[in-house]
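Marked as duplicate of an earlier ticket. Keeping the data here for the record.
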Amino acid sequence: PLLPTGAERSLLQLDGRIRLAEDDLAQARIRKEIEWVSAYLNLLRLQERIQDAQARYRLALENLASVEFQAKMGEAGKEQLLAAQLAVKEAELQEKQLLNTFLQARDSFILDTGIDGELLLTKDSDYLRGFLERADAIDIELGTEEIERLLRDNNLQLRQLKFSREYAEEELKWQEDEGKIKVDTFGNYNYDAGLPEEYRSYWELGVGVSYEFYDSGEQKLAVEGIEARIENLEREYAHTLERLKQELAAMYAQYRVDQMALEIRALGLERTRLQAALYREQYENGLLSDNHYEEIVLALRQAEQDYKEALDKVRFDKLKIALFLGIY
């Protein structure tokens, strides 16, 4: 039998490991991109909420000044004054909490991405729009068989186990061939000036046959050891596949929950828009004060922000599932 040398066997292992490492690196890059975009969108959403919190704080201060004036005129009581003061404190606290959260998230993002200089936050980005469009276009509504096929074909843990098992199967063939009769051929070219001219140069060809009749059971033990390793790898592969299916099922369950939350936010946004349109008519007819109408506009903006954040969750749920299946 023709058996590969030790160097050839090492090369086979190294080649497989390099291919797996390259795929692992590619997935790590995609995973990091998803994390960065998620963090960037979070900063954009926080920035919007800070702006609205600042507007609410300003409105609370204006309302407090109005109540204080009414109290001096005897038109507002102690309870109204305390309520206005409490509203100012709550608005100020919310603004500071959002600002602290934003600063921590921004510093973490800068550290993680290695940005040198000022971080510019903008929604008007071709890259960001393209990224979100790709996320929206992903289809993760797949059948059970297709999901299992994708896991087997793309999951790096399963591919590593499959490669190890296939290599062990090759080792088993090589080891079994070790116990067979070995046939070697050889040849020599000779030249002897002392011989007559027609016999001075000649070839020698030979065949060598060898067989080890007794090896103290080493061959049998080696074969059984490899067979046991193959069985262990097969069990580990089956266990890993089931564990990955469970992880994926949990990811899909969270995706369904976030989809429902998005539907609720969408209905809430539609309702708030209808209310805002009615209040706008009243405002234009002079039936609402500027501050009251601005509070309504802020409520609409909050409903829009709630919807966008819920949509972000669904998008990144899809991306995580797609990456897990190797289709992104």
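See parent ticket for discussion. The radius of gyration is 37 Å.
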